[in-house]
Inverse folding.
């Protein structure tokens, strides 16, 4: 007689198939022929099978339990983390990592302890999930309202984490360095030195970056010989850049040595670092020339331009030369310095030129600067910006007229009435109405014949909003001239909706 087996046995079968193992087993039907087990019965059966001597059965049990959000089922999966067979531990770890947010918080500690598992694949999985695991721990252990301090990971876990930085597997070591700032641990100097001397290029590079970020300069300088001759150019480059932030005679000595490096980028970085330590106008002129002829890579050029502010006013001619560079990134960095001392009246012509720059970022930076200085921008500058090629620049200029008196704003607004962009014409029209410009009625009449339908409609709305019988009669006359015209139909509609007048 044929009977139905439970979902449980299909999961076991699947795990056996995917693992490549061949095993013979006998499925058990439920107590009543043809009836499937309930969820509770399935979970109970799977939990019992966690004690099976058959590895494949235990793996299948873990895979099944991981499909349930039931706390008993998930606790069974957590038990699998301590299994003596690697396949069971892997299955348990994968199941828990897959559910992420639904992972029981008490599982985090047990997972982190797997950082010393004999299986490298398990250690890789744990180390690549550190951010998620620590976030779950922090959320669960956020402290009380009276003492809102998250407790540290247990001592045993912290020690396991620190030891993982020296894992035999290079992927684990790389992962540990990537997630260092999530872990809230402090690396002992011997471990950091070991990482700085690692055989793997990426580990050494990330360890050096980490050492710089956590200001372990003394430790780094102990390895200065090694870094200055490292086979990886990126390490020599990073070390050279770091030296430029150390105002010491020792740093200068190493930088002078690095100026003899075989790589041009390292040599250039050494020159820039020496300039930061001992800036002079003579050296700044030479380096500016080199930046403009693209001797430096872009990142180095930007770093140099930023450092020019060290020289104060004496660097202004160099800054203005750099604003003429054909590199938009250089122009932007020079612009940042220029605007720190620019005078809106004295430097009006340069600001107008920059507002027409080919680079969107340069133009946007100029506009942000003018908005910040909105009550100081002279009308002459606004007038110049009203002819800018970029619509956003002209719109900024139009918006800045809001801070002028009527006498100062109205001539500028009249210029915007003939802008090629209908949106700007409409904004100018709105502002003239708001300011109650003396000739605004005539302008509104002319706007009824604008080429843009939205301008025509806006003019109708403004004329009705004046509540002037003479203007209402004017609109009535327009309707009578050509009652089937779309504008006439719109006027009739608005008169009826807003005034209850049937034309």
């Amino acid at each position: 007689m044929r009977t139905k087996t439970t979902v449980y046995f299909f999961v076991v079968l699947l795990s056996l198939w995917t693992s490549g193992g061949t095993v013979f087993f006998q499925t058990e039907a439920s107590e009543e022929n043809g009836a499937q087990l309930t969820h509770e019965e399935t979970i109970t059966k799977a939990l019992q099978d966690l004690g099976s001597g058959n590895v494949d059965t235990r793996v299948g049990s873990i895979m099944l339990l991981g499909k349930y959000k039931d706390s008993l089922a998930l606790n069974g999966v957590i038990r699998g983390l301590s299994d003596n067979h690697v396949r069971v531990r892997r299955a348990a770890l994968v199941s828990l990592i897959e559910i992420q947010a639904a992972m029981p918080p008490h599982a985090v500690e047990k997972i982190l302890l797997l950082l010393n598992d004999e299986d490298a694949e398990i250690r890789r999985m744990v180390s690549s999930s550190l951010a998620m695991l620590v976030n779950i721990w922090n959320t669960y252990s956020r402290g009380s309202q009276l003492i809102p301090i998250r407790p540290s990971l247990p001592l045993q876990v912290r020690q396991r984490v620190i030891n993982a930085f020296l894992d035999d597997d290079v992927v684990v070591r790389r992962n540990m360095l990537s997630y260092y700032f999530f872990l809230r641990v402090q690396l002992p100097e011997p471990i950091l030195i070991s990482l700085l001397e690692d055989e793997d290029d990426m580990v050494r590079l990330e360890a050096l970056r980490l050492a710089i970020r956590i200001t372990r300069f003394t430790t780094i300088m102990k390895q200065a010989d090694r870094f200055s001759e490292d086979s990886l150019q990126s390490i020599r480059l990073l070390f050279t850049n770091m030296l430029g932030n150390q105002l010491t005679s020792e740093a200068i000595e190493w930088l002078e040595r690095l100026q003899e490096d075989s790589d041009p980028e390292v040599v250039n970085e050494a020159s820039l670092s020496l300039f930061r330590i001992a800036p002079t106008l003579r050296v700044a002129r030479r380096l500016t020339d080199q930046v403009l002829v693209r001797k430096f890579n872009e990142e180095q050029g930007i770093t140099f331009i930023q450092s020019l502010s060290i020289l104060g006013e004496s660097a202004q001619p160099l800054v203005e030369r750099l604003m003429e560079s054909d590199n938009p990134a250089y122009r932007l960095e020079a612009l940042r310095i220029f605007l720190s001392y620019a005078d809106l009246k004295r430097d009006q012509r340069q600001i107008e030129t920059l507002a027409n720059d080919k680079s969107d970022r340069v133009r946007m930076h100029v506009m942000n600067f003018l908005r910040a200085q909105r009550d100081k921008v002279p009308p002459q500058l606004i007038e110049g910006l009203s002819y800018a090629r970029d619509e956003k620049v002209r719109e900024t200029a139009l918006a800045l007229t809001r801070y002028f008196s009527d006498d100062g704003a109205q001539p500028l607004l009249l210029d915007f009435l003939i802008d090629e962009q209908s949106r700007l014409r409409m904004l100018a029209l709105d502002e003239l109405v708001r300011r109650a410009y003396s000739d605004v009625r005539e302008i509104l009449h002319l706007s009824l014949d604008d080429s843009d339908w939205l301008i025509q409609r806006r003019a109708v709305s403004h004329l009705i909003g004046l509540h002037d019988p003479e203007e209402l009669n004017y609109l009535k006359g327009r309707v009578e001239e050509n009652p089937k015209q779309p504008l006439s139909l719109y006027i009739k509609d608005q008169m009826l909706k807003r005034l209850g007048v049937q034309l």
Q: What stands out?
A: The two ends are 89 Å apart (CA to CA).
